[in-house]
Each structure stands twice: as structure tokens, then as C-alpha cells.
Fold each of these.
Amino acid sequence: MECPNCFEIFEHCIRVTNGSPLNLALIGHWDGWQPFGTSYRGCGSLEVSIANMTKNDRQHVEEVYVVGFIPCYQVPNLPEALDPFLQPLLQDISKGFIDGFTIFN
């Protein structure tokens, strides 16, 4: 591989390992749409998928978890506008990793 900053070339090999199930990486995604055909009324969803899976596996519908819906017409078009919606999600994820998650069948 070649570093794009310093242009140093070094060897790298991909390794796969098994370990703690807490070694979990998540991908957050925001998807907005206008169901009524106008640009001032819409909605969106916050979705989470597991990054530790192969891309083909994590893109299946059963591996994408919708964690919230947001009415877009009430959210200004600013990056920090999603903070009130993301903060509770991140708190729940952090608490889950510390205290554990309850799994329902």
C-alpha cells in the first residue's frame, strides 16, 4: 500500500480473527424522501447496519435496522439539525455496550 500523505510504501495483509462479540462496528445512515411529491413536506429514517459483516451480507433487508423516523419538514437543512435525533440513539448504543442488550426472539 502507498500512503497518500507521505507516499511511503509498506506491506499490508488482511487478517481475519475471532474474538469478543463486543467487537462490533456499526454504520449509521440517513435516508430522506418526499412521499407527498413536494420539497417542503417529507420524512426520513435513521438506519443502522453492522459493519463487521461482508458488504453483501449487511445489505440484506434483515440486517438493516431502522431506529427512528424524522419529519424532514420540521428539520432545517443544516448538518447539526439531526443532533437532537442522534443523541438519544448514541446514548442507547453506549448504554447497551456497557450494560448489555436485551434480545427478544
Amino acid sequence: MKWYYWLVIAILVVVGISTLVPAPGSPSNLIGYSSVDPAAPISGIILWVIAGAIYWFGKRKEKKP
């Protein structure tokens, strides 16, 4: 896979994790605690699914001649 696929995957994974960081004073999210992103579990999962799809498409493209 090209280096830019890995860069985008790493960025999406880090941003997905950063949405779960606790932030006092923020509104409660769907899990029930205050985090940086009020839609924390859903947005993190969406970012990780996109990262997985980029990985899958990159590996798939690598196999084609």
C-alpha cells in the first residue's frame, strides 16, 4: 500500500480515539459521560469503519495487476 493510505488510516484512528477523551463541562454523550464529542461512540465507530474501508480498498488495489 502507498504511504498516504497509511497516513490517512493513522489520522482517522487517532481522531476516532480522541473523540472519547473526557472533557469536563461538556454535555454528556450517548455512553453517559462528558467527552470531547457529544456523539462519541457513534462518531468513533464511523471513523474506524472508514479507516478499515481505506485499508481494505488499499490492499485490494495492491492485488490487482
Amino acid sequence: MKCRFKIRRWKRFLWAVPLLGVLWMVEPSHVSAQSYRPFDWEITRIQQLTRWQIGPFRLAPTLNLRNMGYDSNIYREREQDDPIADYTANISLDLSTFVLFKDWVILDFTVNPWYAYYAETKSERSLNFNYSTEAKFNLLHRFVLSGSYTYDRARRRASSEFDVRADQVRQNMEGSLFYETARETSFGISTSLRYIAFEDEATPEQDIYLSRQLNRTEWNLSGEFYYNLRPETYFFVLGGYSTYTFDYEEAEWRDSYSYQGMTGVRFPILGDVRGTVSVGYKKFSPKAGFKKQFSGLIWGSNMEARLNRFNLRGQYNKDVQFSYWTNNVFFVEYRYGAGLSFYITQFIRLDYDYTSGDNRYPEEILVRLPDESYDMIDRKDKFRSHRVGAVIRIFGNTGLGISLDFWERNSNDPSWGTRSSLFFGGYLTYDF
């Protein structure tokens, strides 16, 4: 009842989002969002995205087809537990509607229903839905005031700790106030409130009460600075404070706060070099003094570079994630990888991607060993994935692709052991 009450209470304030926008800002748990873009850049982007215009309304529809194929282990179970295989497909329609009032107001409403289909496992079929509304005001051609609201309901793996999908609702209210110079250098403040709720259900292995462990409110306040190095390339510095408050009494020991800062370079969305390189420092502290803290470097780097017929990719990410099933408040997730695409012709592309990483838990946990004895261990999970595929261009940057994906995770906790899955299927891409 507590979860439902909170969701209804949030909806009462939806009408006030444009007026209260200055009070809230999205992405509280990661100061590395690097989401701010100059007002004029946003107008240009909308004009490029617009496919149809009806009066003042600019429409940008997109059809997405993903994961159409065969999954050998939909619940990521151990081999000895007889994994369940199935045929799957995700079908998504994304419709963005924009309204521009000259050069001083941008209104944006986006709706995205999508359906996850499973041929045999009916319990995994889900109709998912998210929408967002945003308003931006360019005041005196220097100050940009923005506010938005996002609602997202989907059945998903909420983090790399999840083996099964779970129904999750996320609601974000966000706002910011920035000052822009004539050279598109900008600085400002942003703040956010995000509510995350789960629905409880039985899984193949156990009953997991996710709502009582993970339902929470996250609030963030941050300052941001962006310096224009060259067109659409920015040096940035971010810093902020976040709090995390859990709903249920049995999870209050997870209540936490953090200070974080990050600096780096953000490259254009389109171009020969794309992505972000960033590094920062975070101090994450549970309010319960007997739980361990985290303090150290965090990373948020994802890059892509086009060199003639080759497209190179690389990533390195490190940050703190909440844990739901152990006596640990959090785990530290490391993720790094590389990829390569080769254009055989103007119409055929070959892809390969490798991702590796690990989840490290700061506090010892009690485990049952194969000989029925018990021991305390520092849990560590290592995961890796390989992906090979090919894409055929249909027209423009639109292509049809097929891929073979292999995923594996090894844990030093014997009850979790080694798990793997193989997926083979097709997808539609707009980034040939």
C-alpha cells in the first residue's frame, strides 16, 4: 500500500512540472550525466529530427526492433538447474513531439510503448511504457530554465546483480538553471528527485521481496560547468551531493548519502569521434555507522572513433550500485570493453565487441560450501561477454543486423557459481 500511495501522490504534481522545473533535476545517483546541451543546439537537433510538421507540432517517430531471436537461458540460471530457453522479440515505437516558440521556448513530449514477447514463457511477456515531458525557456538570450518529468514502467534487469527481470517503476522530476555565453560556454545548477519502486514476485530460485529492499527516493543537487573547446566538444566539471532514502523500515540501514565530482571531455553526438571521457571522485557513506563506506575514483568513459572503414569503440566505467540480497549496502561495479566494426562495402558491416568486468562487495558474507560447512568470504563476481554480428544497409543509416551474443558470469559464492547464456537473433539499427 505504501508504494501505491507514493505513485498516486506523484501524479498529482504532474501539472506543475513546467512551473516547478527549477526545483528538480534528473540522474541523481550519477554526477557524470553530462546531459546539458546549449539551447541553440537543442533547436538545431529538433529541426534535424523532425519528419512531419502539423501546425506548430514537430513529430519524430521511430520504430525499434531488438532481441528478435533465441535466448538459451532467459533467467541466467546455473547449468545444473536446467536453464529455460525461449524465442524472444522486443518491439518499440518512440514518438517525440516538439513545439518551438521562436528562439525562446522549447516544449517536448515523448511517448514510448514497447512490448517484450516470449514464445513459451508467458510470465515474461510484458507491455512496457514510458513517457516524458519537458519545457525549456531561454530568458534574455542567456539564462536557460528547464524542467521535466519522466515516468518509466518496464520489466528489466535493474543492475548487473540481477539474473531475472523484475517489474520496476521509475519517476523523475528534474530542473536546472544555466547561464550561456555567446561562445556556448555554460554553467549552472541542477537538482532532481527520483523515485524507484519494484513489484515483488516469485523467481525460479527464490521469493525476492525487491520492494522492501530497494524501493527508495534519491535526491541530488549539483553544479555544472561546460567549456566549448570546439564545435560540439566540451570540457566539463561537475560536482554534487546526493541522498538515498529507502521506504521500508527493514531497509533503513541502506539509507546513504554521497559527495561526488567529475571532469572530462564530451565529444559530438555525430562525427568521426563520439562519446565521453571522464574521471572523478566519490565518497559514498551509509548513514548506519557500522556499514562500510566507499571513497575513491569513479569513471564514465565510452568512446567511438571512425577511421576510414574501421569504427573503434572503447569503454571503462566504475561506480557504486545498491545491492539487494546481501548484507552489503552496495557493490562496486567495474566494466571495461572494446569493439571493432569493419565496413566491407558501403552496404555490409561486420561487428565484434568484448566486455568484461567485475562486481566487488566490501563486506564479508556467510556462504555454505559444497561440503556443507560455512565460511565468510569477500564476494566477487566476474563477468564477460562476446558479441559478433553483421549489418546490411537498407537505406541511409538504417540497417538490418544479426548477432551472436555470449554472456558468462563467475562468482566465488558457491551458491551462484558459473552462469552463462547464448543469444542469436536480429535487430533494426539506425546507426550504420
Amino acid sequence: MNSELVVLATNLGLGEPQSRELALKFSLACAKRIEHLLEDSEVVQCLHVLEHYVAGRASQEMLLLAQQDAARLANQHRGSRSIDGCGHAAVSASYGVAKAVAGRAVDAAQYCAYAAVYASGGYAAVADRQAFEPEFAWQLQCLRGMAPVNLVNR
């Protein structure tokens, strides 16, 4: 878990309705980093709806439908067909998108970080806390850069 991100998200009130726009924008940034790991075109489409919503080109209704679809698709992902699933990060990436479309920024960040690290080295990588540090640092920098300055420094 990215404890520094959790602290920043809490200080920003990222889970509160007044911060929904920031939460969606940050969630989108995290999900875009792992988009290449997605295997299901329907999940990719859900991510694109979020992208369009953040850009002001999709309605709340479209986002809600994408939210439902993304959650269903993530829960139905078949996973890897190999015995150990090594290097197969699509399930976590799908959950990352589902959480992103729902505006659950910290959860989205966690799933996306896991997917990124798992894709780079399988189980051995995710067992090593240090393997997450580059992604955690990027997430923290990204959210700080998006947040209003007066809220980051309180």
C-alpha cells in the first residue's frame, strides 16, 4: 500500500463528493499507465468513457454505465490460462479500471500499481516492496501535481 498516497488523499478529501473531479482525473492517469495490460476491449472502452467524461465529452449516465460494465467485466475476468499466471497482470489492470471509473482513486492506484509491478516481474516482483517504489513515487507526484496547491501543503 502506498501509505504516503493514502495520507495525501485523506488530506485532499479525495473520497468526498467535492473532490470527485480530482479523484476521477487522478484515477484516469493511473489507469492510462496500465492500459496496455488490458486484454478485454470492453474494459478498454470503459476506460475511454472515463477519459471522455474527464474531458467533458461524456455524460454522467455514460459514466455510470461504464462503471457498471467495468465492475462486471473485472469480476468475470478469466485470468491466466498458465499454471502459475506469471506476468499476467490483466486481472489487476481490469480491477484498476473498474475502480478508476468508479472514482475510487486510492483503490484504483493500488490495483494499477500492482498490475504494473506484476507485469514487470510476476509474483517475485510483487513480493518485494521495493519493486513498488517507482510506481508509488509517480502516483504521489501525479496527485500532488493535480491537486490545488493550497490543499497539498496543509
